[in-house]
Each structure stands twice: as structure tokens, then as C-alpha cells.
């Protein structure tokens, strides 16, 4: 389980898991727009991080970032570690 503290969004944290194939599981956003963020979690479930990162990276809302953009950053950070 990995926890990422977001910056510049209504959500405060993203919690998720990556399996040995770097497939995404159990995405949960803490704070933010519940319905939209649950939808994002379901859409990325079981998909490879490397597939999702370019889809979500660069999506903008407030403060030049968004919850999807923050998820992409969290996935990038986790893959590098």
C-alpha cells in the first residue's frame, strides 16, 4: 500500500497498491469530489501504471494540477522507487 500526499488539489491523499506487474489496485482518494474520484479509481483498476500515467498527466483544474494529474505523479514516484 502506498500513500501519496497531494499538492494543489481538494483531495489531500491518494492511497493505492501496485502489484508485481505494476497494475493499479484499490485506489482511494482522501477528500475531494467523492463521485468523480471513485470513478477514476474504478477506471484505473487493474490497468498498468505505465498505461495510465500519460493519460492522466497534465490534466489541469486548480493551481495548475488536478486529482488525475496528482495520481499520475504518485504512480511515477512509486515506479521509480
Q: Describe it for me?
A:
The structure is a single chain. The protein is α+β, with helices and mostly antiparallel strands and 81 residues long. It has helices at residues 34-44, 49-56, 67-80; strands at 2-5, 11-18, 24-31. It is globular and about 35 Å long.
Please provide the ordered H/E string of secondary-structure elements: EEEHHH
Kindly name the structural category.
alpha+beta
Uncertain stretches: none
- Averaged pLDDT: 97
Cα distance spanning the termini: 13 Å
Shape: globular
Q: What strand line-up does the widest sheet have?
A: 1-2-3
Strand content: 15-25%
Which keywords apply here?
single chain; alpha+beta; 3-stranded antiparallel sheet; globular; 81 residues; 3 helices
Short structural description:
By secondary structure, the chain is α+β, with helices and mostly antiparallel strands.
Question: What are the SSEs and their pairings?
Answer:
Blueprint: E1 2-5, E2 11-18, E3 24-31, H1 34-44, H2 49-56, H3 67-80
Helix pairs in contact: 2-3
Amino acid at each position: 500500500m502506498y500513500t501519496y500526499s497531494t499538492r494543489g488539489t481538494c483531495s489531500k491523499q491518494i492511497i493505492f497498491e501496485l502489484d508485481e506487474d505494476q497494475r493499479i489496485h484499490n485506489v482511494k482518494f482522501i477528500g475531494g469530489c467523492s463521485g468523480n474520484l471513485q470513478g477514476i479509481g474504478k477506471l484505473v483498476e487493474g490497468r498498468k501504471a505505465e498505461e495510465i500515467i500519460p493519460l492522466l498527466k497534465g490534466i489541469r483544474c486548480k493551481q495548475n494540477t488536478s486529482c488525475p494529474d496528482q495520481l499520475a505523479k504518485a504512480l511515477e514516484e512509486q515506479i521509480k522507487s
